[in-house]
Each structure stands twice: as structure tokens, then as C-alpha cells.
Specification:
alpha/beta, PET_hydrolase/cutinase-like
């Protein structure tokens, strides 16, 4: 079942006008201020082409594909710098400028290899993806949030691929306690462009302070973090924050441990819309273009990026 949340485009525009000043801390980590208004370039009378747009025009087949349009490589990172190491996957193409960066955390007792399919799947769509190991297998969501932020700082400041990453276009993803870590990171660093929690465990149970576009996945048959708990968590996200909720049919808590087209074809558009300001991907989420494998979908459509017109580095 797909649904909008009843917030019209006009209401969103009025809401944007009321929030003229950017929230505290709402600046990119590269030093540029985020634009305070939410809008699509086309709706401002400008060409609907983002300077951060990467890759060919998307299709239903391309967002579901195992391999995207970009050739990729990877580099291993040793333990240290505030997290337990990991692997960075990145597009080898240097002709299109820098790419947005994403850090991903596994869950309790999990390691990066358990969800490593996400690395090449997302990187080949035009992102620099850092799949991290945590300092300890039982690290709390808050600790995982700290480690995700440390990983992004390392990625953009010290890594061997730092010149390929736009430090002002970053996102976080996590599973279970790692999902709680991703949401915790978003609460602490509102300059992030996107956050995705997959069956996230967030002890506080509240995202009332969330300013980052947030996608929450629930698994229909999850008994550890059941959909009822995640629906309640999702309902705490402020009305001014872009958001979506997806319940995956028949899935258990560790569904993400195997490659999933359902996750990929919804996750990639979310990241493209908010990290790349790429309105071409709105067609897949507003409305949901493919409901196969999804029992519930809610969103704040139309999904409007706040990254447009922000001046960033090369």
C-alpha cells in the first residue's frame, strides 16, 4: 500500500517560506552554507539539471541493475581514525567531477562482508561508498553513529580517494544497530544530505530533532525491530524534514544480508535525489513506481532536495 502523507506542494512551499533562516549547524562540511529553501530547480524557472548530476538518464532497469553505469575500484582501510577500518568503493571516472560520499555501518555482531554487496552496487551508480567495520562487534548505536561520522571525516580529509569526494554531499546508511547509528549521526550532523536506516534500532525512539532527509526501512516479519516500532519512530520525524517509510514484504531482520533489488531500486533514488540533487530519480519514489515486494510505503512527496544552488568546491 502506497500513500502520501497529505502534505501538498503548496503547503511545502509555504513551509519553506516560513523557515527562511537555516537551522543551526546547517552548513556543508566543506564550508559552504546550505540553501535555506527547499525547491526544485525547474520550479524556480531554471534548467532542471543539477551540477551534481552523474550518469545517464535512469530507467527502471538501471536502478534495479546489479551493476550501474560507472566502473569502480576499491581500497582497503586499516583500523584506526576512530573506527574499525573497512573498504572504500569508488568510481574510476574522473571526467565528471567529484562524487557524493556515503558511509555504511553493519549491525550488532555484524561485519562489513555481511552486507558488502551494497558497496559496489551503490558505487557503480556514482557514489564513493565506505563500508566500515566497527571498533567492537557490540558497539551501541551511538558509538556506531560516532564511527560513521569519523569515517566520513577520514574519507573526505585523509583517504587516498579524498579528491574524488565532494565533502559537502554526504550520507549515512546502517543496518539494525548500525541503522540506529546512521540516524544518530543524522541527529548530530544535520549538514548530512541523506540518512537511511535499515531495520534501525534507535534506543531513544525519537527523531524529533531530525533535519536530514531520512528513509526508514522496516521488515514485515522482523521480530527484533518490528514494523510497529519503526512506524512509531518514523512518526516522530518533523513535518519539515523529507522522509519516507518502506516495509519490505515477507522480510526478516537480516534481509539486507543478501543482495536485494527491492532495497536497491528504492535506496538509489533516495541517495540520488538528496545527495546529487538529481530530480530525474523522483519518478521512482513520487509516486512509488514499483510496489512489488513492498507492503507499505509512506513519503513526504514531492521529495525536494535542499542542495541546489549551493556553491561547492571542484
Amino acid at each position: 500500500m502506497a500513500s502520501s502523507e497529505g502534505e501538498s506542494h503548496a503547503e511545502k512551499s509555504a513551509e519553506s517560506a516560513r523557515h527562511v533562516a537555516p537551522p543551526k549547524g546547517r552548513h556543508s562540511s566543506s564550508g559552504g552554507s546550505r540553501h535555506p529553501h527547499r525547491h526544485r530547480p525547474a520550479e524556480s524557472g531554471l534548467a532542471a539539471v543539477s551540477p551534481y548530476q552523474r550518469g545517464p538518464d535512469p530507467t527502471a532497469a538501471s536502478v534495479a541493475a546489479v551493476t550501474g553505469p560507472f566502473a569502480i575500484s576499491s581500497v582497503a582501510v586499516a583500523r584506526g581514525n576512530g573506527f574499525g577500518g573497512g573498504v572504500i568503493y569508488y568510481p574510476t571516472d574522473t571526467s565528471q567531477g567529484t562524487f557524493g560520499g556515503i558511509a555504511i555501518s553493519p549491525g550488532l555482531n555484524g561485519t562489513w562482508p555481511g552486507i558488502a554487496w551494497l558497496g559496489p552496487r551503490l558505487a557503480s551508480q556514482g557514489f564513493v561508498v565506505f563500508g566500515i567495520e566497527t571498533n567492537n562487534l557490540n558497539d551501541s548505536p551511538a558509538s556506531r553513529g560516532t564511527q560513521l561520522l569519523a569515517a566520513l571525516d577520514y574519507l573526505t580529509r585523509s583517504s587516498t580517494v579524498r579528491t574524488r569526494v565532494d565533502a559537502g554531499r554526504l550520507g549515512v546508511i546502517g543496518h539494525s544497530m548500525g541503522g540506529g547509528g546512521a540516524l544518530d549521526a543524522a541527529l548530530r550532523r544535520p549538514a548530512l544530505q541523506a540518512a537511511i536506516g535499515n531495520a534501525p534500532h534507535l534506543p531513544s525512539g525519537s527523531l524529533a530533532g531530525d533535519r536530514v532527509p531520512t528513509l526508514v526501512y522496516a521488515m514485515q516479519n522482523d521480530t527484533l525491530v518490528p514494523p510497529t516500532r519503526l512506524t512509531s519512530l518514523y512518526n516522530t520525524i518533523p513535518a519539515a524534514t523529507e522522509r519516507a517509510y518502506i516495509e519490505v514484504a515477507g522480510a526478516g531482520h537480516n534481509y539486507i544480508g543478501q543482495p536485494s533489488t527491492v532495497l536497491a531500486r528504492t535506496m538509489i533514488p533516495w541517495l540520488k535525489i538528496f545527495i546529487d540533487d538529481d530530480a530525474r530519480y523522483s519518478q521512482f519514489l513520487c509516486p512509488l513506481s514499483n510496489q512489488a515486494g513492498i507492503t507499505q510505503y509512506r513519503s513526504s512527496c514531492p521529495l525536494i532536495s535542499t542542495t541546489a544552488t549551493v556553491s561547492r568546491g571542484p
